[in-house]
Every structure is written in structure tokens, then in C-alpha cells.
């Protein structure tokens, strides 16, 4: 389990559960159809928890190019490793999107609306507006990365002290993502992760979906540029506040 493999696996787990809950809520004839926004945000929070639990000990569980870039800007991660992490994250995200399609193939066939099918893979704005949509992604990612930069480790006070929470140590970032989804996610679907949106969007473009609609390429830059800007701003402000 090298850091590269860890980021592939962690991002795969994040995305197979994240896109999986999208499919369960959105596609026709699933048991979870139309179960709503609370289910989606909760499913994504649990998806983050699962990915971080597995990848955390081996790569730090970035599982998000914006996090890798933000940590590098803040001086907490070497720039030389950023491209490798991003490549791994895209591999994991794209393979997960393919698996979600395979599991839900019959339900994709049962769903007529092309936009609903695309929504399983990637985000779209509730009301298209370049400025507000971009700002939504910037702000959501700022909250995520700024919070991550302020995470603290348990401090060993005596030699026989038991510190840390083990696998529960992944819980804080999951709760933050849940909060972002509940509070800020309703405008754009809170990608807050370039690999989470662009990787599955590419898979959507390649898959032989019945009645497939637009790939939404005109919007696709926002869930990439917005998170990178938000992560960078979070890092700059954190550095200024040291």
C-alpha cells in the first residue's frame, strides 16, 4: 500500500459510495429513489469517512486534488508529489464511476431523463450563474481545507498514555463534508473536489448510456477551478494567521 495505491483505493471508496448514493436516490426503480437531499449528504459524508479510514495511514488520505494543492500551498506537503497524488485520485474516481454504472445498469436503462443520469456522475448548478456557482465551489472548498489545516493530533503526555481515536480519527473530516453539503451544497451539488467531478464526467461521456444527454462541458471547469481557488485561499489565510 504505497501512497499512490492508497490514493487510488481511498478515492475509489469515496466515489463508489458517493456516486452510489447519487444513483440510489436519483435513478428509477431503486429502493432509495427520491429519498432526498439528507440521504445524499449523509451518504457522501460516510463515503468520505470510508476513504479516509483506509487511505489515511498510508497517504494522509487527500483523496482530492484541491486538498493536495492546498496542503502544498500551505507548506504541509511537497509540490513534487502533487502530480502523482492527482493522477491516483483521478484513476480511483473514474474506476469508481464505471463500477457504479455497472451496478446500476438496469436502473440507468429504466431512467429516461439524461440530466438525471449525468447527475449520478457529476454536478450541475441548481440555477446557472457563473459567478455565484464558482463562488459556491470556492467557499465550500475553503471551509473544507481551512478546517483540515487546523486539525490537531493527540499529544502524548506520558509514555504509557493511549492517544488518538484509531479509525474514528477520520470522523472530523466526514462531519465537515456533511456540514458543507447541508449548508452550502444546494446551489451546485458541492463538488469541492476536481477529481470527484471531472473524472466521473469523463466516464459519463464514454459510457454507452441509453438516452444520454449533454455532458455539461460548459460547466465542467467550475468544479475544477473553484475547489483549487478555495483550497489555495484557505492555505494563504492559514499561513497569514500563523
TrEMBL record:
TM annotation in the entry: 6-25, 37-55, 86-103, 138-156, 168-192, 219-241
Protein keywords: Membrane, Transmembrane, Transmembrane helix, Transport
Localization (cell): Membrane
Domain of life: Bacteria
Any Pfam family: MIP
Membrane topology value: Multi-pass membrane protein
Principal location: membrane
PROSITE patterns reported in the protein's UniProt record: MIP (PS00221)
Family statement: Belongs to the MIP/aquaporin (TC 1.A.8) family.
Protein name: Aquaporin family protein
